[in-house]
Amino acid sequence: MPNFFRIFISAALLLFLSTGCTQEQKKQNTLDGKALLEAKCASCHNLDIPAQTFPEEVAPPMMAVAFHIYDFIKVNTPAEKTPASIAFVKDYVFNPTKEKSFCDQKSLDDYGLMPSQKGKLTEEELEAIAIYMFKHYNQENFLKIMAKRRLLRD
Fold first, then answer.
1. pLDDT averages per 10-residue partition of the chain, 154 residues
2. Which of 38, 97, 107, 149 could connect to 103 by a Cys-Cys bridge, CB 3.0–4.6 Å?
């Protein structure tokens, strides 16, 4: 009987631990990156595809930001590109510095350095935003949107 009891307790503990991890993963996966981007970033960044610029804008268009980061991030393999870009956003948005920035000097002169967003969103929210950024603002989506617009014009 003691062996059965140990096996039962071990199985129950394993089930409890795995269920807890699954619940945490579900919680993280329910954050809506698009909604968060619209709520937290659109007051400064234009979210249009293709990117548009306006004289009164205070930050570069989000498409330009995503494309720029993705182009300039240094990685060893193509599979590392998106995770490295997401990691960059997670670091930069909370701890922006001129040295970390991929902006050219004219953009820094025009827009200034992005203010830290510490305290304005959580790490989980920022991760959801970054994941959405690189899923949405990519060359494939840009080309699809442009092709659809050409069809509508013709």
1. 47 43 51 97 94 89 95 95 97 96 91 96 97 96 90 76
2. 107
Side chain identity at residue 63, one-letter code: M
The answer for residues whose C-beta is within 8 angstroms of residue 47's C-beta and 6 or more apart is: 37, 38, 41, 61, 62, 63
Other Cβ atoms less than 10 A from the Cβ of 126: the count is 24
Which two three-digit tokens encode residue 42?
Answer: 């659109």
Q: Is the dihedral of CA 74, 76, 78, 82 positive or negative?
A: negative
How many other C-beta atoms can be found within 10 angstroms of the C-beta atom of residue 128? Answer: 22
Q: Which H, E and C letters describe the chain, residue by residue?
A: CHHHHHHHHHHHHHHHHHHHHHHHHHHHHCCCHHHHHHHHCCCCCCCCCCCCCCCCCCCCCHHHHHHHHHHHCCCCCHHHHHHHHHHHHHHHHHCCCCCCCCCCHHHHHHHCCCCCCECCECHHHHHHHHHHHHHHCCHHHHHHHHHHHHHHHC
> Of how many residues is the chain composed?
154
With tokens 């306006």, the residue in question is: 54
| DSSP 8-state symbol, 118 | B
Cα 30 from chain centroid (whole Å): 14
